[in-house]
Every structure is written in structure tokens, then in C-alpha cells.
Amino acid sequence: MKRNVRVCPKCRKELTVLGYSQIVRNFQTFRLEKGVAHYEAPGRVDGDDVGEWYCPECDTTLFTNQVDAEKFLQK
């Protein structure tokens, strides 16, 4: 089986995978009961549609859309 190996344009390390990160906000209610903090869930979760695909070796963002990330790995 042939491995797809790509090279990070910044650190020049060989890559077979990309890292992915996405910021997600979790909304909960907060209250004090007898001086003790309580967070109640589940709250609303609001995910930013913008994710980043990055080099897992140097953490440099390489792509901000899935199509470009797929093309990179398929080369």
C-alpha cells in the first residue's frame, strides 16, 4: 500500500495527516447556591464554521477550508 506523504511548506517535515481545530462555544447557566458555584448543562453549543487544518509538527495553519486540505493530502 502506497503512503501519501506530503511536506509542510514551513517546517519541511513529511506529513501523512493534518491536524484540525475548530473553536466551539458552550453556553451554560451559572448560579450560586449557598455560596457554591454551579454550571448547568447542556447549554447551547455554537460552533464556528471556520476550522483550520494545520501541520501537526510545527502547528502552522496550512488551510482554512476542507477542499484545499483534501487536495493537499491527495497529491
What topology emerges from the helices and strands here?
Blueprint: E1 6-7, E2 14-15, E3 19-26, E4 29-33, E5 36-40, E6 45-54, E7 61-63, H1 66-74
Antiparallel strand pairs: 1-2, 3-6, 4-5, 6-7
Structural overview:
The chain is mainly β. The protein has one domain (6-74). 12% of the residues lie in helices and 47% in strands. The chain has one helix and seven strands. It has one helix at residues 66-74; strands at 6-7, 14-15, 19-26, 29-33, 36-40, 45-54, 61-63. The strands form three sheets. Strands 3-6-7 form a three-stranded antiparallel beta sheet. It has a two-stranded antiparallel sheet with strand order 1-2. It has a two-stranded antiparallel sheet with strand order 4-5. The mean pLDDT is 87.
Walk across the major sheet and give the strand order. Answer: 3-6-7
Determine the structural class based on helices, strands and strand pairing. mainly beta
Low-confidence stretches: none
Count of domains: 1
- Percent helix, as a range, is 10-25%
Strand percentage, roughly?
Answer: over 45%
Mean pLDDT across every amino acid position: 87
Number of H- or I-type helical stretches: 1
Distance between the termini: 16 Å
